[in-house]
Amino acid sequence: MSGQQPAAQRRRTAALCAALAATAVLTGCGKGDGERTTAKGGEGSPSPTASASPSPSASPSPSTGALPDAYDFTPDPERVPKTAERARELTRNAALEPADWTPGMVRHDPYEVAGSRPLLPDSCTWTRTPLPDGMLDSYTRRIDLPAKDGKGRVQGSLTVTVHRTEALADREMKDTVQESFRCPVQQLGGGQRLDGLMSMHLDPKDVKNADATLFESGKYTGPGSGGPQPYVWTKSRIGSVTTAVSVKGAKGHTVSDLIRLAAEAGAKLLYRVELELK
Predict the structure, then answer these.
(1) pTM for the model
(2) Domain-embedded: residue 39
(3) What three-state secondary structure class fits 71?
(4) Domain residues for 271?
(5) Beta-bridge partners for 234
(6) What is the pLDDT of residues 15-25, one digit of tens each?
(7) Closest CA to 21 of 178, 249, 265, 217
(8) What is the CATH classification number for the domain harbouring 115?
């Protein structure tokens, strides 16, 4: 890793956090229960007082440099995975350990899921299936922020997936947005559920560290959650590689807290994917 990595990660985190925060306002993420706006059907409208802005520390500064005008990274064709073996190398190298995400985070149990992919069938209950022919590898790590100072345990997950072609990766991104419309209530198993889900692509001009990024928000309910909690999820693509970060909220954590966690992990994952592809 180069000595410029911390500054580069700060710039990428700032860009993604700002974009996710703006999207959160549009989707109503961060409002109280019953005040959520919708991204479809024209129902509701963003409140002029709603705010999910990132903290001042997420803004660019002279020490981190200006944000790029547009994303212009081109993967080296020789580094793009063409075999399952190379794809597994990339997904493991790109994935974060708990301390890489944020100091104090810990491994979830189970920690790793490999060699399969999540699938949302018509039952709207998530399941895992073998990798289809279009995927070379998909690797997930689950990482939590422990309960502390009266706040509950936040559950996070990171997934890196390598597709055989850029077109297939792009197709996955487009299909993902439709899942929240097809299944606004989703069962995760083990008594866990997501509801009120809305998903949308970020405006390309706001995406500074990937070819495309989408954002999803809703409510999470599960054992020990203490009732519905905020949920955020973001997915990005660089060439034929996609990255995804989900964060399930807990008591005492705001939507802005979750957005910052998701943006931080997302930026670091994308930076590592670039290193693998350059």
Answers:
(1) 0.79
(2) yes
(3) coil
(4) 5-66+78-277
(5) 215, 245
(6) 555 555 544 44
(7) 217
(8) 3.40.1000.70
